[in-house]
Design a protein that fits this description.
Layout lengths: L6 E6 L6 H10 L4 E4 L3 H8 L10 H10 L3 E4 L8 E6 L15 H9 L8 E4 L7 H12 L4 E4 L9 H4 L5 E5 L2 H11 L6 E3 L2 H30 L5 H9 L19 H11 L5 H22 L8 E5 L14 H12 L2 E5 L14 H7 L2 E4 L15 E2 L12
Parallel strand pairs: 1-2, 1-4, 2-3, 4-5, 5-6, 7-8, 9-10, 9-11, 11-12
Antiparallel strand pairs: 6-7
């Protein structure tokens, strides 16, 4: 670390699911790290040694890094000027029409840029619409600063950060040799393998990765619908065709494909391809349409207008407390129009996040039909003497009854 800086790294927006695990990982590997987040309440929680969300294995490392002075969180933007490496975890947003806003990140950095200094490197971390790295480079150039810009996309899965930060290869990109070398040196403290790409290649690599997963989930969900409409269990078919057969081992199970990245990034790639990305749009129709499909299948057998439906699981993935872009809420909206009443529960989502949730036992007791929307392990093996729509096949019967 240069004597001109008091910290090795500052993570801008570091109180969230991407920034906080990264900050903890870097501090754990010896960097002196500051977290800057505009949410003062989140900053206070972090500085108390408590994770503001679920991330297995992170809290002990957080407490240790706070105790040894390797990590601090602040709501004061001036701390941005005190670190040699400025890592920004703001991603490109999409609007209500699913169009990405390439200028959102340069605009979001405008206030923070007041504290940028010569000798720093600005590292963009979250998903970027292709060309945004170049926009940020021009913004930095207009400031007249001797400051490198890099794009080093995060590649971790939520709830696996404390494992994957240290095991997965890290993509590093920068327009300059110095920027590439500085970013690679920093991330080499986390992982042994660095993959060098150009900024534009790295931007597409990140989008391709998430879109590929989204398309695979759409294929599985389409297969599920085909099997279900014939009264067949897709999971039985999948297990049979993939058993000891390497060319089918990556076929995923069916289920709600949601969360803050996959759908959004697929739509960003569609916008980048001049709206000719029919495969991506088809995947969106399948995945986003699965909640309505489940309800329509139930309507064929039951008068939902006279029934209470219980939804088990509101987080977007199993074992998570994260409800961002969860299709469980889309399912709830559909059912509120179709059913007599809708009850919801989740063992991980707190009352502060969603005060409408009630205990699992109450949902089971008061509902006429149940839908397992999130594959939490707590639901596996439940004995329920009522109809259950179990897309995830947690109970061993993946046919929508």
């Amino acid at each position: 670390m240069s004597e001109a800086f008091t910290h090795d790294v500052v993570v801008v927006g570091g109180g969230g699911h991407v920034g906080l695990p990264l900050a903890i990982g870097l501090a754990d590997r010896g960097s002196k790290v500051a977290i800057y987040d505009i949410n003062a309440a989140t900053v206070d929680v972090i500085n108390s040694g408590v994770m503001p969300f679920t991330e297995p294995g992170a809290e002990p490392k957080l407490k240790a890094s706070l105790a040894n002075g390797q990590l601090i969180a602040s709501a004061d933007p001036a701390i941005v000027g005190q670190a040699a490496h400025v890592i920004v975890v703001i991603g490109t947003p999409v609007d209500e029409h699913l169009n990405p806003d390439p200028n959102a990140i340069p605009a979001a950095l405008a206030d923070t840029a007041t504290y940028f200094r010569d000798g720093q490197i600005l590292i963009l971390r979250s998903t970027l619409f292709p060309g945004v790295t170049a926009l940020v480079e021009r913004m930095v150039a207009d400031l007249g600063l001797d400051m490198d810009v890099a794009f080093c996309p995060e590649r971790i899965a939520e709830h696996k950060a404390m494992e994957e930060l240290f095991s997965l290869p890290q993509i590093v990109s920068s327009r300059t040799d110095r920027g590439r070398e500085r970013a690679a040196k920093l991330f080499s403290t986390l992982t042994d393998e660095i993959v060098h790409l150009s900024p534009e290649e790295a931007e597409l690599a990140k989008l391709f990765t998430n879109t590929w997963r989204y398309i695979k989930f759409a294929a599985a969900n389409q297969f599920y619908m085909m099997a279900n409409e014939r009264g067949l269990d897709y999971e039985v078919i999948r297990e049979g065709l993939s058993r000891n057969y390497p060319r089918a081992k990556d076929i995923p199970g069916a289920g709600f494909a949601a969360g803050p990245c996959l759908f959004k990034d697929t739509m960003q790639l569609a916008a980048f391809s001049d709206n000719k990305f029919g495969l991506g749009h088809s995947a969106m129709l399948v995945n986003e349409g699965l909640p309505l499909y489940v309800v329509s299948q139930l309507e064929k057998r039951y008068d939902l207008s006279q029934m209470t439906v219980g939804i088990l699981g509101m987080a977007f993935k199993g074992g998570s407390d994260d409800i961002r872009s969860s299709l469980s809420y889309k399912l709830r909206r559909v059912l509120k129009f179709k059913a007599k009443a809708v009850l919801c529960t989740d063992p991980h989502v707190t009352e502060e996040t969603d005060p409408t949730l009630i205990p699992l036992a109450d949902v089971i007791a008061k509902s006429d039909i149940l839908i397992i929307a999130t594959p939490h392990s707590e639901y596996r093996g439940l004995v329920i003497e009522k109809p259950v729509a179990d897309v995830w096949n947690l109970l061993g019967n993946g046919v929508v009854v």
